[in-house]
Design a protein that fits this description.
about 80 residues; alpha+beta; 3-stranded antiparallel sheet; 2 helices; 3 strands; rod-shaped; SPOR domain-containing protein; signal
């Protein structure tokens, strides 16, 4: 009987700690996905200066384009642009 009582207390404490840690992590996830104001510009070097190749909302898309341009032998980079309201 005492074993069941101790086991129940330990499980309840573990469940409460798990819920508390999940509640603390939720705002980070929201902040990470709420980036409508960020754009990623892919720049490519052309005759000694940087031209804009394209603008993307997702960093992964921009990185794919940079890798494709680098495979073609061009010098490319990503610039992050944040709009201010």
């Amino acid at each position: 009987m005492i074993r069941k009582l101790i086991l129940s207390a330990v499980l309840a404490a573990g469940a409460t700690a798990g819920v508390a840690s999940t509640a603390n992590a939720a705002p980070d996830v929201f902040d990470r996905h709420d980036r409508r104001d960020v754009r990623f510009e892919v720049k490519v070097r052309h005759h000694g200066h940087w031209d804009t190749y394209g603008t993307y909302r997702d960093r992964d898309d921009a990185q794919r384009v940079v890798r494709m341009l680098e495979r073609r032998g061009q010098d490319a980079r990503i610039e992050v642009e944040r709009s201010r309201w």
